[in-house]
Amino acid sequence: MPTGCNNKTFINHTYANFFECDAEINAILNKNSINLQNCTIFVSLYPCSETAKIIIQSGIKEVVYLPDPKSYKEPATKKMFDASGVEIREHTPNENIKIDFFHHAKLDRPVADLSGGNLFMAIAYLTSKRSKDPVCQVGACIVNSDNKIVGTGYNGMPTGCNDDEFPWGKSSKSNKFIYVCHAEMNAVFYKSSMINVKDCTLYTTRFPCIECGKIIIQSGIKDVVYLKNPKNGKEEDRATKEMFNASGVKLYEHEQNLVITLDFA
User: Fold this and answer.
1) 184 and which of 64, 201, 212, 217 could share a cystine (Cβ 3.0–4.6 Å)?
2) pTM
């Protein structure tokens, strides 16, 4: 529903679908860059003619959608895209994804809630899967006060450093720890240049190290939500907590009570 329109009020309306904002509209209007010229938009359904017009006018040049035999493909959408030079292609995922936040929870069953913190931690987890680290994949997601995602990151080599030419091991003198940029660092620096993360919340799949703690503090982030890790409690973690306490950054452990399965079959 549009911002300010109570879901409970409008969802029961006889013509509830008249009021809904399509995903494409929300993605375009909630963007974190100055413009969308030559960008690519990924959507779960083939766009209707109405959203096709918005996509074209926004400057987007490529549309990628999931196959759905039940979805109607409006001929007008393809006709407008062809005339406007917008490429559209179908994407068929080759694997399903399961996000299990319930594994360590002391509950009888997982909850079916993908709102708020569950959603943002799920985004952080999905982002972690882009990491090339063979042992520890970490993801982070920064959210502003309007609950809009303004930055994501995962642990990896610095920009321009080929993953295949730098070490991923831990034992040698020249090991990965010297080179790898952590997820929290990348989330802060990969955000759009027009975005200020002051007073934002950072979701991370691992407790921040002391170096990332410094970046978090200096960037102005005020809340950090992390996944519980059995290895937490190291001396370095205590140092991070001490800095956060002194700087007014609040720490929250994310309640692991959810299982999310992305079934692309």
Assistant:
1) 212
2) 0.75
Helix (H, G, I), strand (E, B) or coil at 124: helix
Q: Taking each helix axis from N to C terminus, what angle separates 235-247 and 210-219, rounded to the nearest 10 degrees?
A: 10
Paired residues of 43 in beta bridges = 65
| 107 compared with 75, residue with greater pLDDT | 75
189 by DSSP, 3-state: which? Answer: helix
Q: What is the DSSP letter of 185?
A: H
Catalytic residues: 184
Distance (Å, rounded) from C-alpha 144 to C-alpha 196?
A: 9
Mean predicted lDDT score pLDDT of the chain: 85
Q: What are phi and psi of 210, to 5 degrees?
A: -65, -35
Report how far residue 124's alpha carbon sits from residue 140's, in angstroms, rounded to the nearest whole number. 5
Dihedral of alpha carbons 69, 120, 143, 146, sign: positive
CA distance 55 to 182: 34
Helices 49-58 and 75-84: crossing angle in degrees, nearest 10, is 20
Q: Which two tokens stand for residue 45?
A: 């359904």
Helices (H) and strands (E) in the chain, counts: 10, 10
Q: What is the pLDDT of residue 107?
A: 46
- Residue 195: C-alpha distances to residues 73, 117, 191, 198, 252 (Å): 36, 21, 7, 9, 24
